[in-house]
Every structure is written in C-alpha cells, then in structure tokens.
C-alpha cells in the first residue's frame, strides 16, 4: 500500500515544548488524542527536536551539548526526560505505549551526524569506517549546532544513515521528520534518507513516513523528486500564531494544491492552535493568539489545500473550543476525500478603485470535488463539491461568487443544497446562502474579519 495515501493528521511537540518535551507530556497528549480526536482522524504523535539533549532548554539550542549517543554515535533519548528509555531501551517502550492507543509514533532528527560522535571518532555500525572519516565540517546547519554534514563521496556515508534509521525502525518509529533538508535543498541527503528507510522497511517489515523540513523557497519544479523520495515536504519556514503568517500560506498552497497526489503531500506547516509556548522557541505561555475566525480560516485553507494537519498546541491543556474545532469531521473528510482542489478567485478589494492606500483585503475562493478517500471509502458528499470563501480584510464583508464557478456551467441549472461545514459548533457562523434562479444563481456569504465560509454543495432532487 502506498504510504501516506492521505495527508497525515497528528500532534507535534514543537509549538508547545520546543526542545524540552518529556515522556509524561507526550503520553498525556497521546491519551487526549485517543479520547477526543482519534475518531476524527488524528492518529500520529511526533517528538520534535533534541530528545537526545539532557541540557535542552526553551528558547534556543546549546553549543557543545552532551548529547546522549550509543557506541556508534546514534542518538538515544535522554533518560531523565524519557525514563522508559533507560538502559539502552531507546524509544521502543514509549512507541509501544503509543501504539497500544491505536496511534502512530514519530520523531525528529537533524541532517548529518552528531559533532560529538566525530570528536569521539565513534565507529559506524557494520563497517570498518568511523564518524570522522565521513564528516563534512563545512556542510553544517546555520541555526543548530548539534551536527556536522556528511561527505557522501566517502565510504561509510550511506551506512551511517542506514544504521541510524534501522535503530529507529527497531524502536517502532512510524514517522521520521528530518530537518535542515530543504533550505537549501539537499537532494543527496533526501535520497540517502529515502534509501535508508527503504532498507529498514524491508528488514523489519514496517512502514515509515519521511517528512522533510523546513520549506523556505522550495520550488514546485522539485515535485517529481520529492514524490519519489518522501511523503511530506514543508513549503514554508516555521509558522506561528500570527495572521500575517497564515496570510502568506494562501499563495503557497495555491501554488502547490494542484500538485497534491496520494502518497506525497506539500506541507503548509504545523497548526499553532490551542495551548502553545509552554517552553517553546518563540513567545510566552499562551493560548493561540489567532482569533476563532482566523483559526477556522487556517484549518479550512489547510484542508482545501490537502496539507497534512499537525497541531502544535498541548492537547490536555488546550481550551475545549480548540479540541471541538479539531474534531470537526470535515477536516478528515476533505483532506482525505477531495480532488481538483484549487484557488479559483483571488481579487484585491480597495475602498476606492485604483487607490492603493485604500486597500481593504482580498476576496479568495477555493473549490474541490468530493471524491473517495484513496482507499475506496466513499465520500459523504459523493457527486458534490466543497467551496471555501475567504476574506482577508480586518472588517466584515459580504460578497458573492457564481454557483457555476463551483459546480460547473453544465450543472449550474440543477438544484443544489448548501451546508456550512463549520456549522454545529459554538462559534460565530457565517451567513451563507444560494440566491437567484437558474444558472445565474450565486452563493453569497457574510464573512467576519479574516474569516471563511466553508461549504458543501450536494445535488438535490428539487429546489429548496
């Protein structure tokens, strides 16, 4: 079966805990995901960066950190933060607990090999070579000091990645997020990790998703290479709980959405929703600063763009309203079961035509066709369509879009029923309706500031 035939939905520790998450916090998030979100499609837990650093702290990284390594230079979980990893057990005990809840387990690593392994000149498992022989001390990450790069012209280079990923597979890792891979774009590193994963999958009879980060300046011309070697690839740098960050993703997802395919997904980054910043890289302890309308717009855009959905807020301590948003079944339905997803309208609105200084915002419309879920599971809206009307301005606005632009000219005269996919929640609901008669009917919506109308359109036997 194709890995990641639908965009993964899960939780990642970065927005909440930065480099410092511990075992108890991971398990608490796993339990909340199982209890509140699993039925809605959320099924993956990811421990982000520096799980091997016993000196990890909020708001930054440590030079010359005493990383926990095995005798072959491979990272091991810090047993102080992850007690079940003691005595060389690694992440297997934690992965077993996550799996027992019906969830998948993932971890983050940096490209390259630990500088500490090079300083100690540790052997590379299964080879006569050592870490110092394959290290490239000029090929380093610009923002994290843990690793050196790898010189792939040297014997033993691929063997390092093979041995590292084999260890992860034996722990039961289902999802591997590899960082410092795309900005700049390291095609040789991506291919090496893909080869290591394929080898480990054959050896252990498992499947492991490869997710690449970060995503600044990633061009769509790389899409064939990315599809061949990975299941997820970021298309932006880190996104936080600012509307300006969300706004930038409209253009990026519009560029990538037509290229989404089962098995390989352009990733618009984590969802900074819920309780974030507990011990994170940026900002203080807070509930997401995005307004409820902005949160719905973010989730709608990610779903219509078929981006993976990886929430960053600490689930047990997030507001109940956030969990209600995440539990909306439309998120899984549209990310897994839609096709032809694309932005069809984007128009600038000025209070006075031709005067840039009177800019109010953008009217943006997306559409998609309901489809099966890639595994043959039928869509709840078979034969229907999804539409999302967005307004990026800071004041409410009403606007209309032609019905035929969503359902097609040939079907515009047919009767259609409209439903609000954010309906039924204790949130401000948009006022959306079909107006007019015949093929010239329009969908009109009153949208709040930075808001959306997320709609399904289904064939009806007769006019309402």
UniProtKB/TrEMBL annotation:
Keywords: Disulfide bond, Glycosidase, Hydrolase
Enzyme class: hydrolase
EC number(s) given by UniProt: 3.2.1.22
Signal peptide stretch: none
Source domain of life: Bacteria
Ribosomal protein listed as a keyword: no
UniProt similarity note: Belongs to the glycosyl hydrolase 27 family.
UniProt protein name: Alpha-galactosidase
Keyword field contains Hydrolase: yes
InterPro entries named among the record's database cross-references: Aldolase_TIM, GH, Glyco_hydro_27
Catalytic activity annotation: Hydrolysis of terminal, non-reducing alpha-D-galactose residues in alpha-D-galactosides, including galactose oligosaccharides, galactomannans and galactolipids
